Amino acid sequence: MKFFSYIMVYRRFLLVVLTVLVLLPLPIVLHTKETECAYILFVVAIFWLTEALPLSVTALLPSLMFPMLGIMPSKKVASAYFKDFHLLLIGVICLATSIEKWNLHKRIALKMVMIVGVNPAWLTLGFMSSTAFLSMWLSNTSTAAMAMPIAEAVAQQIINAEAEVEATQMTYFNGSTNHGLEIDESVNGHETNERKEKTKPVPGCNNDTGKISSKVELEKNSGMGTKYRTKKGHMICKLMCLCIAYSSTIGGLTTITGTSTNLIFAEYFNTRYPDCRCLNFGSWFTFSFPAALIILLLSWIWLQWLFLGFNFKETFKCGKTKTVQQKACAEVIKQEYQKLGPIRYQEIVTLVLFILMALLWFSRDPGFVPGWSALFSEYPGFATDSTVALLIGLLFFLIPAKRLTKTTPTGEIVAFDYSPLITWKEFQSFMPWDIAILVGGGFALADGCEESGLSNWIANKLSPLGSLPVWLIILISSLMVTSLTEVASNPATITLLLPILSPLAEAIHVNPLYILIPSTLCTSFAFLLPVANPPNAIVFSYGHLKVIDMVKAGLGVNIVGVAVVMLGIYTWIVPMFDLYTYPSWAPAMSNETMP
């Protein structure tokens, strides 16, 4: 037993050593460039899937192993680690930093929830819509981290409203108030951990009152064996959690900058097929927005039916009197919004720059009319989406946010400098350097596959798949990606599979977008497990969900997502990119590799 305990303690170290040694005969025995590159690919893939080393550390392995095995010189490998993608990411993070610093994201989310109302079904749709909208521009993780405390406060207010109704009824029958059922106003604050809320004294009361209320509440919970008054209250908490987690992922599908997987695909595609100028911010939004909208609405219906039941008559009934719970929800949302105060100058400037960035992205090369990039016709293709992102990003460091003052020896307060919308230190705290390195490692790996000839070898071996129907190949690749991304990180999954799927499309003489677009979208469908992506982990940490809850709900959303992507690729996406025709910008395969 002691031996096995040592193995468990040092399992990651052993996995790294054994992987390197067990696969070592591959390059030694065969000793070709293809097998040497395959050896590196297998090692990196195993480390990414098992996370034996941190993902970004594993991503640095190509820069070490490619020069050592003579596949690529060190200078050429190093150039793959910083691309146009990284400039785009820097500009987007500048925007995200300012939005979160000045609480613009919270104002947008609360306002959208206030607009849709407090009916439970519409309330969850409001949370899903606002969260999805924010995740189009912010990272999925930060969006979920921002929205979840608000949703938690609303869910607790619903549960406490039920307690208030019961307390009123008991007062009416018994002639006294049960203090154990009083509403704990601490949910209106920033405390989001339910266990802390139960033991936190009520603001405005002395400590003894808070202790008595907490004691009675704990006794009540222990007597019932649960921290929820009713099953419906528990279901509402589960529903709120999953709505936030799934919508923060679904919203990221709609823009190239919405998720790291979209950015990785765009950079890889534009690098491998430089003559194709069909993929930009506007074209991506045009085909992905309908898909994301349909997935969001169907997921809302599915989650609503799974946890609360979906009554169409009640949901769409107009003029219905609000219940006590609904009034309580409206009040807590209103109070949270009022805490933000009137909109400030910094928020207005951030919002203007946010809108300006989106408009410049859309109008750069919309496709149906000439965009502003036509003004630089002498340098076609020079200005990209990263140009816009950097231009707006630099403005965040330039535009004044507030004056900095100091007190002179005479006691006079004078301004000596100004503080911009964001500082470099704040930007650094938001910048995901690990993702930047991970993506760079993926690009280096793809370049190595090209240089060594491994991509062509894979294409030759995959050419027999051309006998299968194209829809079946797309479905198989989509399901494979969806399954893999549940146990591996999304960026690692897409980085690993792009160098395989592109040669596959070329080998069977199919437009690469036909296979790459569905696979890229499906990479984000990590809905089954708490560890599948950060939003899932964030909502799971609140303690309302069990793994089986997430598996049941996530399986339905996964099926919906893959079905909608398959529908889209055969309807509105086909005419946009002429998917039925093998494009001139893709490599012309030899007869041996053509089906």
UniProtKB/TrEMBL annotation:
Q: Which UniProt keywords apply?
A: Ion transport, Membrane, Sodium, Sodium transport, Symport, Transmembrane, Transmembrane helix, Transport
Q: Chief subcellular site? A: membrane
Q: Does the keyword Calcium apply?
A: no
Q: Does the keyword Transport apply?
A: yes
- Transmembrane ranges? 42-69, 81-99, 119-138, 239-265, 285-307, 343-362, 382-399, 470-501, 513-532, 553-573
Q: Which GO terms describe its molecular function?
A: sodium:sulfate symporter activity
Membrane topology summary: Multi-pass membrane protein
Compartments, as annotated in UniProt: Membrane
User: Which Gene Ontology terms of cellular component type are present?
Assistant: plasma membrane
Quote the InterPro entries the UniProt record gives.
Na/sul_symport_CS (IPR031312), SLC13A/DASS (IPR001898)
Assigned protein family: Belongs to the SLC13A/DASS transporter (TC 2.A.47) family. NADC subfamily.
Name of the protein in its database record: Solute carrier family 13 member 1
Species assigned in the record: Mandrillus leucophaeus
